[in-house]
Amino acid sequence: MKAYPEYKTSGIDWLGNVPSHWEGSRFKYFLDQITTPSISTHKVALENIESATGRYIETSSEFDGNGIGFIVGDILYGKLRPYLQKVWLAEFDGNAIGDFFVYRPLNNATSEFIKWLLLSDSFTRIANQSTEGAKMPRVSNDFIRNLSFYLPPIEEQMAIARYLDEVTANINSLMDEKQAQVEDLRKYRSSVITEIVTRGLNPDVSLRPSGIDWLGDIPEHWNDTKLKYLATKVGSGVTPRGGSEVYSDSGILFLRSQNIYDDGLHLDDPKYISAEIDEDMSNSRVFKNDLLLNITGASIGRCCLYNLAESANVNQHVCIVRVMEKISPLYLKLVINSRIGQTQIALYQTGGNREGLNYEQLRNFYIPLPPLSEQLQIADYLDEKTAKIDTLIEELEAQLSDLATYKQAVITEAVTGKVDVRDWTPKS
Predict the structure, then answer these.
(1) CA pair distance 116, 113, nearest whole angstrom
(2) Rg for the chain (alpha carbons), in Å?
(3) What ranges in 10-120 are assigned the alpha helix state H?
């Protein structure tokens, strides 16, 4: 896309130079905040808005309480954690509950343009920098309404919105396709693991009933047992006294559920505790080849082997499973990753125990158990097989990240006047 023929200095750091005919204003002079309470049963919460796309997501959730009334054409802006970019141009009248600002453009602005402005990286960065509250950061309405900006004329706003509607829709469609491929590969990975840890590597092996409806038959020479007969430890850590205030930049590695993934430890944001605190929590030390399993929250069921030489410690959301010599830690991880493990996690979460697993439930996990030599063969085979699948997933996720970055660049360049789309015409 070409640039505008003439620019001027905006004097706004996050905006830079703007087209010379755009007019300076503050947000409060083109956006009206709506605060009228609503009792509408058509409720919209943050979970209904997809991050960074402006798309509405239908859910089956039932929301308590009431919020602000909105009408078609209003803009719902998620003020909690603005980096999540929860922005939606209302397609129906309803009730915005929770952490939303409801904005209605005045005569000098259009909803379609403002939606894209609020979804841009340039706006998101400045909003995110202004947040208050460490655990639940929120941007204030006063901050937004007092921000300075340069508005294009109405017709130009509409042209920019039409351009972004089509271009981002094409990018989103491509991203959806790649995300579907990722999900298909993950399902395939799980099915490969499940097939091998329930049947073994010999396709001609004799089978016998396992006695469990959801499992079916297993190889005749395999044993079936419970985790409590295979483990010397099933337990988790605790939050240190003082909570996050005791974390430091060095010391003993302290692991949380956000560090535990099926493909291994993720240590992008590591936390540490002192040797003294680690000594107080000596019962929850983690050693090489311990299995770490998330037992609460949205990440329940994710697990990996601890593969570092030095010991670490964990909080109460991560369970440590330390096994006896008759089972391979890697084989156990594969069982937990498979349909066998995930089915049991789902079964134990029925009823009133949806928030997590307890140790007694984990100790009673059913484990199909080949001889140790066969466990090692299975682990070696699946390690190689899943590594290839994981590589394909990583490649697709890298492409998704590049597309997301490109989409944000397209949005930001258009709403800040770095490209001139006035003569752009749709391809479709």
Answers:
(1) 5
(2) 27
(3) 111-119
Q: From the options 3.40.50.2300, 3.90.220.20, 3.30.1490.20, 3.40.47.10, give the CATH code of 223-369.
A: 3.90.220.20
Q: Where are the domains of the chain?
A: 23-151, 223-369
Q: What's 188's DSSP letter?
A: H
Evaluate whether 23-151 and 223-369 have a shared fold.
yes
Q: Write the class of the CATH domain 23-151.
A: alpha beta
Q: Which residues contact 238 (CB under 8 A, 6 or more apart)?
A: 281, 284, 315, 316
Nearest to 58 by CA among 69, 68, 45, 71: 45
pLDDT (0 to 100) of residue 355 = 65
Using the Cα atoms of residue 34, residue 38, residue 44 and residue 47 in order, give the sign of their dihedral. positive
Q: What is the pLDDT of residue 1?
A: 81
The pLDDT score that the predictor gives to residue 14 is 94
Asked if 323 and 365 count as a contact pair (C-beta separation under 8 A), the reply is no
Predicted model pTM: 0.83
Collapsing DSSP to helix, strand or coil, 145 comes out as: helix
Which residues does the chain have with pLDDT short of 70?
Answer: 350-355, 428
Q: Which two tokens stand for residue 143?
A: 């901050």
